[in-house]
Amino acid sequence: MYPQKGGMIMNIELTEKERDNLVKVLDYFIPELRGQIASGVKHDWKMAMKDEEATLKDVQQRLKQLN
Known about the structure:
single chain, mainly alpha, two-stranded antiparallel sheet, 2 helices
């Protein structure tokens, strides 16, 4: 592990099936999170949720590039 903007880099080994399942979970969860953000939650929560959404979208994109 080594430092990177936003935290430490961690490596994880996934089978293709595990990767595919993780992508499916993210495909479902990210729009749900977007809905929560749009629903008018408190500003502090909204900012934290937007940061989480950006992080998850980045992970989702990197996983999809592995196909």
